[in-house]
Design brief:
The protein is of the alpha/beta class. The chain is built from 8 helices and 5 strands. Strands 2-3-1-4-5 form a 5-stranded parallel sheet, with helices on both faces. α2 packs across α8, α5 runs antiparallel to α6 and α5 packs across α7. The protein is globular, with a radius of gyration of 16 Å. It starts with a helix and ends with a helix.
């Protein structure tokens, strides 16, 4: 199982969109991939949990987190082979760890935690909660957006991850992200 959570070596810059639900991560991931004519790694949890909801009318449970993490890393490792410039990740295992701890009494599967901390990325974009909440089958706790944002920010600080806070309109966020990715590409 460990090999399924391990990040494979890649010849590209990896950036992660990171933050609470309904803060524009997927939209920005698609925009950035289009801008750089590259690929983006969708959030596997969305597909997995939507199927669970559609088939069982159940939401995420602790036992779902490892299969979600494995699916996420499978997507990431496969798609990282398709670019030698930049890989845009809609999420990562560190995000799954934050949700696990926030939703399940501070608990996180030890293997998930291990790889959430071992897998590395060149830059995180922390998405702020100034975009409108959009409800769907899977999103919950709109009243806890600030609390969740703080949990994500604290995690990046605690583990010394390089990050940029993205606020404002979709256009402003895209411009800020492009500015920082361009700097990374110049160093590559």
């Amino acid at each position: 199982m460990e090999k399924n959570l391990k990040q494979q070596p890649a010849n590209c810059i990896k950036v992660v969109l990171f933050g609470p639900e309904s803060t524009g991560k997927t939209t920005l991931s698609r925009q950035l991939a289009r801008h750089y004519n590259s690929v983006w790694v969708p959030e596997y949890a969305r597909e997995y949990l939507q199927n669970k909801w559609n088939n069982e009318r159940k939401t995420c449970e602790p036992e779902d987190l490892l299969p979600i993490a494995i699916g996420q890393m499978k997507f990431e490792n496969e798609l990282a082979k398709k670019t030698d410039t930049i890989l845009i990740c809609d999420t990562d295992l560190l995000e799954t760890k934050v949700y696990s701890e926030a939703f399940y009494g501070g608990n996180c599967d030890p293997m998930l935690k291990k790889y959430a901390l071992e897998n590395t990325y060149d830059l995180y974009f922390l998405t702020y909660i100034d975009s409108p909440w959009e409800a769907d089958d899977l999103r919950d706790r709109p009243e806890q957006r600030m609390e969740m944002f703080k949990a994500f920010e604290d995690e990046l600080i605690k583990y010394n991850r390089p990050f940029i806070l993205l606020k404002g309109s979709k256009k402003e966020r895209l411009e800020m992200a492009v500015k920082h990715i361009d700097k990374l590409l110049l160093k590559k």
